[in-house]
Amino acid sequence: MNKTLSLRAAIYARYSSDMQSAASITDQVRICRRLAEDRSWTVVEVFTDEALSGASHLRPGYQQMQQAAMAGRFDVLVAEALDRLSRDQEHIAGLHKRMRYLGVEIVTKSEGSISEMHIGLGGTMSALFLRNLAEKTHRGLEGRVKAGKSAGGISYGYRLDRQPLPDGTYTTGDRVIEPDQAAIVRRIFEDYDQGLSARTIAMALNKEGIPSPRAGGKGSGSWSFSTISGNWKRGTGILNNDLYIGKLVWNRQRFIKDPDTGKRQARLNPETDWITEDVPHLRIIDDDLWDRVKRRQGAIRADILTERAEDPGAPKIERAHRPRYLLSGLLTCGCCGAGYIMISSTRYGCASARNKGTCSNRKTITREAVETRVLNGLQTRLMHPELIREYMTTWQQEMQKERQESLAARGDQERRLAKVLRDIENIVTAITEGMFHPSMKAKMDALEEERLGLEARLAALPDPEPVAIHPGLAESYARKVADLAAALNAPEARAQAADLLRGLI
């Protein structure tokens, strides 16, 4: 093939955690390079994602690949198979549509040049594969639970008991009581039954240096209110674990992926879907103590619900995820770095000191006092001429950075357009000189389509203008501060005040 007609290829490779082999990336790239060489394509970029699911599009390499395509940095996207790009029907269809608009062809070793037919059939098969895999996994776990074995994860108070088998392997999923931890579980139940709060119990355990369930894992290693109380509906927390009374409850909740973020979210299953098995050998707490604790928890929940019903200022469900106070989530303890939270109706205090007893900072401050200090800082210190100049300089630098990125993107598009025009001219010259080949028509059509796309994108790009300080920038900053003060003084606009504050800090 004439080198002037060589296409620029980008390779995408991915392996998911279920494949258990990082070497898969190297193998995929090698296969894709060979495919590109066979077609005389020039590999200009390689994008990879390791141990990431194909059901999510929130993958760094995948996102970088799309950005490179939008910048016109390659002509062909090469992968080992369509499911390496995505197993989600919606995502793969969107990618195909986007690449076609950008004039980028998708080619895989398994399927060849990808068309709408591949997208429809391949996406459906990948979706079915994921669904079948999930169903098989769920069935397998259900079987383990019905056999009284662990379906994953070990509760505090137990350890795995692996026994050798004749074939040299070991049993899996069997649990036995861990005596030392079981004693702590009994203590927690007894202390709670005696009237101690979960917070007080957690602080005492931390003071004695007793490792928490998360010690050595991803957590902080210290006991907290939530470690003990958990969520009674979901069966989390020491006080809600049915395993302590010899009942193994499974399938309480399911996890679904947010289609926008790709993050898993828990959803409570109907109680009729729960799987419950008796495992009397794992009992730690007797029924009488368990029932007394449940009665106390129920009474406390009833009191809280009554208070919320009687308090017109209690947060409504639809506002539950919005900051309740102006500085919620913005204050930290100067001693330990934990958050400063509302520990009463009017005062902020260290969360670790309050909930865990792991910080010695017992100082508190009224909400009114700290909000006043923050507003004064914004209205006086941040309005100092030197700080305003620094703000304006930073703004100008950021605008200049955006301008340079815009110029770079335009430059990439213009260089690619020039290359396409040269390729078109070369084909026309070859035809004029009598060197016509049927494949030239298809190539010419593809180049013309790409030319139109490039010209359209270039026409849509705004002409970057030199960055200059807007004469009203300082006044705009001052208005933001003034608007914040006004919003703070209007209770009905408190949420707006919090949003403005986060925009300034």
Automatic annotation (TrEMBL):
PROSITE patterns: RECOMBINASE_DNA_BIND, RECOMBINASES_3. One of its GO terms (molecular function) is DNA binding. It holds the Pfam family Recombinase. It comes from the Bacteria. Residues 166-303 form the Recombinase domain. Residues 8-156 form the Resolvase/invertase-type recombinase catalytic domain. PANTHER family: DNA RECOMBINASE-RELATED, DNA-INVERTASE FROM LAMBDOID PROPHAGE. This is DNA invertase Pin-like site-specific DNA recombinase. It comes from Roseinatronobacter thiooxidans.
